């Protein structure tokens, strides 16, 4: 008999095919999150699960799943996991780093370019039939991207991929991070480590790439935004909650900063409706990693993590190594 696993929501058929060679699968083939009570009920007889960011794996969910050995997230972020509770239950937790770096970095650049050059507002204006003719003093002046200063807060794998792309725009790249990059990484990114204050003060485009945790909650709030240039653009491709949305909305309303490109929000998908009235913000629905190739690679990596964990091997992307003996 094959071990029983849960796949909490719809993935690609090839992922199910791959998993089915090893497991008996309880598959929620709808692309809608299971309600917490149904998630707990369906975990109750499982040894493993492929989970998504919408699945909260906490003490309550774990209590109903005494046989669970591994939960494998299809995401690099894992703030849907209560890691302390998962580790206390002796369950392995994994994520999908690496395979989404380039796609997410591309999305960061799409937001940066769109915000800096006001592409979305201009597109809407044309569609609305408001374009009466070319003007030297048009309504759509943006900010130069080339030769500007790109700041990156959180210089992990995705941050470095964002930085490397700046070379083509001949930008100056500065970053702030818990620790300094290795010399060869700094060289590849052509990036200089600065204090958080300098990063806020100097960046023309500030890209946020921090994971969400209580320590990073509202890392960008009113006090931080006040230190930014009035011509600066803020790009959040990481997690809602690292930015205080209320403070950002006020800054965008008062033009304390020039613009923002946001893929993630506090309480998404229930955005603060004040965003909708602003023409200096570009909004996307948490699509950072959303290409078919990348989402497939993420789901396959999660599947490989689960296969390794349930075969008694150390999964390649274990995020709570204390469970596997360090
Ligand atoms: C995904 C993400 O778009 O990996 C993450 O942490 O936020 C994104 O890659 C999505 O959340 C996948 O579940």
TrEMBL record:
Record organism: Pseudazoarcus pumilus
**Family listed:** Belongs to the D-isomer specific 2-hydroxyacid dehydrogenase family.
Task: Give the UniProt keywords, A-Z.
Answer: Oxidoreductase
- Tell me which InterPro entries the record gives: D-isomer_2-hydroxyacid_DH, D-isomer_2_OHA_DH_cat_dom, D-isomer_DH_CS1, D-isomer_DH_NAD-bd, NAD(P)-bd_dom_sf
PROSITE patterns with a match to the protein in the record: D_2_HYDROXYACID_DH_1
Q: What cellular-component terms does GO give this entry? A: cytosol
Q: Could you cite one Gene Ontology molecular function of this protein?
A: hydroxypyruvate reductase [NAD(P)H] activity
Provide the taxonomic classification.
Bacteria, Pseudomonadati, Pseudomonadota, Betaproteobacteria, Rhodocyclales
Outline the extent of the D-isomer specific 2-hydroxyacid dehydrogenase NAD-binding domain. 110-288
What name goes with this protein? Answer: D-glycerate dehydrogenase
Has UniProt tagged this entry with the keyword Oxidoreductase?
Answer: yes
Q: Which residues form the D-isomer specific 2-hydroxyacid dehydrogenase catalytic domain?
A: 5-320
Report if keyword Nucleotidyltransferase is assigned: no
């Amino acid at each position: 008999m094959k071990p029983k696993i849960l796949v909490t929501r719809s993935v690609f058929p090839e992922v199910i095919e791959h998993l089915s060679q090893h497991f008996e699968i309880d598959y929620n083939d709808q692309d809608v999150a299971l309600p917490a009570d149904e998630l707990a009920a369906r975990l109750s007889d499982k040894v493993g699960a492929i989970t998504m960011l919408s699945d909260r794996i906490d003490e309550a969910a774990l209590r109903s799943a005494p046989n669970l050995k591994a939960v494998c997230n299809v995401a690099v972020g894992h703030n849907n996991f209560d890691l302390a509770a998962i580790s206390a239950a002796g369950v392995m937790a994994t994520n999908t780093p690496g395979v989404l770096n380039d796609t997410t970095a591309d999305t960061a650049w799409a937001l940066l370019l769109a915000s800096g050059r006001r592409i979305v507002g201009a597109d809407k204006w044309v569609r609305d039939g408001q374009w009466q003719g070319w003007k030297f003093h048009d309504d759509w002046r943006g900010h130069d991207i080339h030769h500007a200063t790109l700041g990156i807060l959180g210089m992990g794998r995705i941050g470095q991929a964002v930085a490397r792309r700046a070379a083509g725009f001949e930008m100056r790249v500065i970053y702030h991070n818990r620790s300094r990059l290795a010399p060869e990484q700094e060289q590849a990114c052509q990036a200089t480590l600065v204090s958080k204050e300098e990063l806020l003060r100097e960046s023309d485009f500030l890209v946020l790439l921090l994971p969400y945790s209580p320590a990073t909650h509202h890392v960008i709030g009113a006090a931080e935004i006040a230190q930014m240039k009035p011509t600066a653009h803020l790009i959040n491709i990481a997690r809602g909650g690292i930015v205080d949305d209320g403070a950002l909305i006020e800054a965008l309303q008062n033009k304390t900063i020039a613009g923002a490109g946001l893929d993630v929000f506090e309480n998404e998908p229930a955005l603060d409706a004040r965003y909708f009235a602003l023409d200096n913000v570009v909004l996307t629905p948490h699509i950072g990693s959303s290409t078919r190739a990348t989402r497939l690679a993420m789901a396959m990596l999660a599947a490989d993590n689960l296969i390794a964990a349930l075969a008694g091997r150390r999964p390649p992307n274990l995020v709570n190594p204390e469970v596997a003996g360090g």
